[in-house]
Amino acid sequence: MAINDRALPETFAVACMPMGSLTKITTGNTAAGVTALVSNKTALTAESVSINDLGGLTGTYLAGLAGKAAITLQDQTYTIHGWVEGFDTENPGQRATGKFTIQAAC
Description:
Layout: E1 2-3, E2 6-7, E3 14-19, E4 22-28, E5 33-39, E6 45-54, E7 57-62, E8 68-74, E9 77-88, E10 91-105
Antiparallel strand pairs: 1-2, 1-10, 3-4, 4-5, 5-6, 6-7, 7-9, 8-9, 9-10
């Protein structure tokens, strides 16, 4: 995982939960982690990405509403990259846009 082109420590605590045509991918916890919702209904798409206090950033991508994201799947590894809109966790009053890359093996 990387935030604003800065690599974060690798984690192997990844959970992938299939829910029909959606897959929920989580890592970390509610204090610091990522939750992503991926769809394969008609084409592989990232529906949402929520980053909570990682790399100094808390932010959200929501398909069609906030941020931007693209996704690929190779073997069983998802790679999601794009931009979230949110705030700087060091200065919560400061709006921030952050670049992210997430790789999760499911």
